[in-house]
Amino acid sequence: MTDHAGPSFTDEEYAFLRHVRFGEMPPTARPEERTALTETDPRRDQPDPGDGRDRWDLRHGA
Q: CA-based, 20 to 30 A from 34: which of 1, 13, 41, 60?
C-alpha cells in the first residue's frame, strides 16, 4: 500500500501552476515614480477640535 496524497510536481511545474493561477507580478515602481502621501483633508470620523466632546456625544446619540 502506498501513502500518496496527490500528484508530485517538479519545481518548474509548480512555478507554471502558480503563473496560471496568479498571473504575472506588476512591474516594480521606480523611485522617481513614487510619491509621498500627504493628508490634506481633516478626518471625518471625529469632530472639529474646537467642538466639545459632550456636544459630539449629544449630536450622535451616544
A: 41
Q: Which residues contact 53 (CB under 8 A, 6 or more apart)?
A: 47
CA separation for the pair 25, 45 (Å, rounded): 36
> Are the CB atoms for 20 and 28 separated by under 8 Å?
no
Closest listed residue to residue 50, CA positions, set 40, 39, 60, 42: 42
Taking a C-beta distance cutoff of 8 angstroms, is the pair 55, 47 a contact? yes
The Cα–Cα gap between 6 and 18 comes to 17
Q: Report H helices in the chain.
A: 11-22, 53-59
Residue-wise pLDDT tens digits, 7-22: 789 999 999 999 999 9
